[in-house]
Design a protein that fits this description.
InterPro entries: AmpG_permease/AT-1, MFS, MFS_dom, MFS_trans_sf
Pfam family, one: MFS_1
Strand content: under 5%
Protein name: Major facilitator superfamily transporter
Distance between the termini: 10 Å
Subcellular location: Membrane
Membrane topology: Multi-pass membrane protein
Number of strands: 0
Length: 405
């Protein structure tokens, strides 16, 4: 268990920076690049297929035990491992600047996979560090840092990057992203990790954890929640960028709507959600957010039916970001509640796996199927899944064990 709070201003800034940079490169290579390729004429079915490349982030649970073992052998020191990963992340981003995003798609895809592997590995270690630093009462703050950091990474990796790409091209854009990632590496070099540690158990970390983890009271109900909850949200988000391209928006405007309007509101929603966790129950908040999603995602129908004013585009993007940002601190706290001192990084990755897997699959199939059934049908499907999530939380949430003893 935690002996004390290990948070310092330096550690808070480092956690925030880690959460930002793990999304900067990956969001550019998985979101912004969709807008670039759609603008160049790529079909929706192809874009949906390329979205599946994001699965590299999903399967990080496969090597999470190795990260836990490495850190345990090095006396619980996460920062030394993070320095190595961050350095290779910078190198992999710089590597892609030497190629053309349109002509060298295969190389760019390989780079995307590599960046995804490194960013997801960084996330494994970052969650272990967060578990080490945060007490139970500080998990709301941890969720807010993670969500806000991800949104800031999205601002830089999607919003800012698309605007820069529109005017300065591929190489300049990618090198600037590498520079941003280097800032976190410098922070790691200067960071002196706290002596305040999580007490490790003697039992060795093994692959049996995969089966042992989900075989506890209430966790199957949590698993179903983690599978259901991201579907509607990720379908809506995945559809918005190609919709904006198809109705005539330029990459700079898409970057502004995505990276500035939506993201700023998302950060505000994340902070408010983290605060409200201290006042309202998690069940109440998830139900409220699901209702907001169910109705809000339908605003995308305005865009596909001719209402292409920037106000409607900004409204849709804002609703999607507010929904994501308000719900993630709650989901993050639920996951953190399940962690033990034995292998926190692995146990977090085990929970993130179904959540991210369904998000990636919903995103990929949502875009691909919209090429067959149309945008309107998939927008309604997204709203329907948010309604199903709301009903599930209403009926079954009380069975989830979400307070760690």
């Amino acid at each position: 268990m935690h002996k004390c709070s290990c948070l310092t201003p330096q550690s808070i800034l480092l956690l925030a920076s880690l959460y930002i940079t793990q999304y900067v490169g990956f969001s550019f290579f998985s979101v912004a690049i969709i807008a670039i390729w759609r603008k160049s004429g790529m079909q929706l079915e192809e874009l949906g297929f390329f979205s599946l490349i994001s699965l590299v982030w999903v399967i990080k649970f496969l090597w999470a035990p190795w990260v836990d073992k490495y850190v345990t052998k090095h006396h619980g020191n996460y920062s030394s491992f993070l320095k190595i990963v961050q350095l290779f992340l910078i190198i992999s981003i710089v590597f892609t600047s030497f190629f053309d995003v349109i002509e060298d798609k295969l190389i760019v895809i390989i780079a995307l996979i590599l960046v995804g592997l490194l960013a997801s590995t960084q996330d494994i270690a970052a969650e272990g560090l967060a578990f080490k630093l945060l007490t139970k009462s500080e998990r709301g703050l941890g969720g807010t840092l993670k969500t806000s950091g991800g949104i800031l990474g999205n601002i830089l990796g999607v919003g800012g990057a698309l605007a820069i790409y529109e005017y300065f091209g591929w190489s300049v854009t990618v090198l600037l992203l590498a520079f941003i990632t280097t800032i976190t590496f410098i922070q790691l070099l200067l960071y002196k990790e706290s002596k305040c540690v999580v007490e490790h158990t003697i039992q060795d970390i093994s692959w049996r954890l995969f089966f042992q983890f989900w075989n506890k009271k209430g966790r199957i109900l949590l698993l179903v929640l983690l599978i259901l909850y991201p579907i509607g949200m990720t379908i809506s988000y995945a559809l918005l960028t190609p919709i904006l391209v198809d109705v005539g928006y330029g990459l700079d405007k898409i970057g502004f709507i995505n990276g500035v309007v939506g993201s700023i509101l998302g950060i505000i929603a994340s902070v408010i959600s983290g605060y409200l966790l201290k006042i309202f129950s998690r069940k109440t908040m998830l139900i409220g957010i699901s209702i907001f999603e169910c109705l809000g995602f339908l605003t995308l129908l305005f865009l596909v039916n001719g209402y292409t004013n920037i106000l409607f585009a900004s409204l849709s993007m804002s609703i999607i970001f507010i929904s994501y940002s308000a719900s993630m601190p709650i989901i993050h706290a639920l996951m953190m509640d399940q962690l033990s001192t034995k292998s926190p990084s692995t146990e977090y990755a085990l929970q993130f796996f179904p959540f991210m897997l369904m998000g990636v699959l919903a995103s990929a199939f949502g875009v691909s199927l919209s090429g067959i059934f149309g945008y309107s049908t998939m927008i309604i499907v997204a709203s329907l899944f948010s309604f199903i999530s709301m009903m599930y939380v209403l009926l079954f949430f009380k069975g989830i064990e979400y307070e760690r003893n």
